[in-house]
Design goal:
By secondary structure, the chain is an alpha+beta fold. It contains eight helices and six strands. A six-stranded mixed β-sheet has the order 3-2-1-4-5-6, covered by helices on one side. About 5% of the residues have low confidence.
């Protein structure tokens, strides 16, 4: 599946945080840099790949690049990957934190223990939805992880519906022409192509409508033509 692996982070003098120009909620008493790692760890854990982050911190006048690793650790950009090391919990971090649960869910998914991975991902998604709302950046990233698990475990109908919703949610949040929206739209179509006819038919209309809404019609013309061709085969 496609993923986005490069982000621009801006921390203002008064501690306001933006990731790719999106405002982020920074809870009281929490440093913005901790929120950066928390948010982007979800992305790294979902893809299994490091996320490259370019940070501009106006509080210190510093600019630097770092990688957020799938296990939640960070390292300087360009450093060769190293085997995951046990993480030392911060004083306020307790066993069963979001980081720990994400790492466990990712490990279960890689081991093809999808029952465990899906249950953990659903629990994380429910928590983030309750705490931050269903269209918050962290919630959408967790939903991407859950959609990836659905695809990997062969739940193509769930993956199609999830990625279709995610494409519209990212479009509403970020506006047109953003990579996250394009990736979600492509993944929705890719999942739909794996469906048997009796499951593909009912989801086709929502999928095509989404493709028309999140991009200029000419940009999704090929994708929509492939969907139409497959629907035609069902009717022959």
């Amino acid at each position: 599946m496609n993923t986005s692996t490069r982000y621009q982070v801006h921390i203002s003098r008064d501690g306001q945080l933006r990731i790719d120009s999106e405002p982020q909620v920074v809870p009281g008493g929490v440093d913005p840099s901790q929120v950066v790692v928390q948010v982007l760890h979800i992305e790294a854990a979902g893809s299994g790949l490091p996320v490259l982050v370019h940070v501009q911190d106006e509080r210190t006048g510093s600019r630097f690049a770092m990688q957020v690793m799938p296990d939640g650790s960070t390292q300087a950009a360009g450093t060769p990957p190293t085997p995951p090391q046990p993480r030392t919990a911060a004083p306020q971090e307790q066993k069963g934190s979001l980081f720990d649960r994400l790492a466990a869910a990712q490990a279960a998914g890689r081991a093809h223990d999808f029952d465990t991975a899906v249950a953990a991902a659903d629990d994380i998604l429910q928590q983030l939805t309750s705490e931050q709302g269903d269209t918050a950046s962290a919630t959408l990233e967790a939903a991407q992880f859950r959609a990836d698990l659905a695809y990997l475990s062969g739940e193509y109908a769930f993956a199609t519906a999830s990625w279709t919703w995610l494409a519209l949610a990212w479009f509403d949040r970020l506006g047109p022409g953003k990579r996250r929206t394009q990736v979600a739209a492509q993944n929705a179509a890719q999942a739909w192509m794996q469906l048997p006819p009796h499951e593909a038919g009912p989801l086709a209309s929502d999928l095509v409508n989404m493709l028309m809404e999140v991009a200029a019609p000419e940009r999704t013309a090929t994708m929509r033509a492939q969907i139409a061709e497959r629907l035609g085969q069902f009717n022959n």
